[in-house]
Amino acid sequence: RGHVEVRDFGLSYPTLDGPMPAVTNASIHINPGEFVSIVGPSGCGKSTLLNAVAGFLKPTVGSVTVDGEAVDGPSAERGMVFQQYSLFPWKTVKGNVEFGMKMKHLDKASRDRAARTLLGITGLTAFENKYPDSLSGGMKQRVGIVRALATGPKVLLCDEPFGALDAQTRVIMQQILTNMWQRLKISVLFVTHDIDEAIFLSDRVYCMTARPGAIKAEIAIPLERP
Ligand code: ADP
Ligand code: ADP
Question: 78, 128, 188, 212: which sits with the fewest CB atoms below 10 Å from its CB?
Answer without folding.
Answer: 212
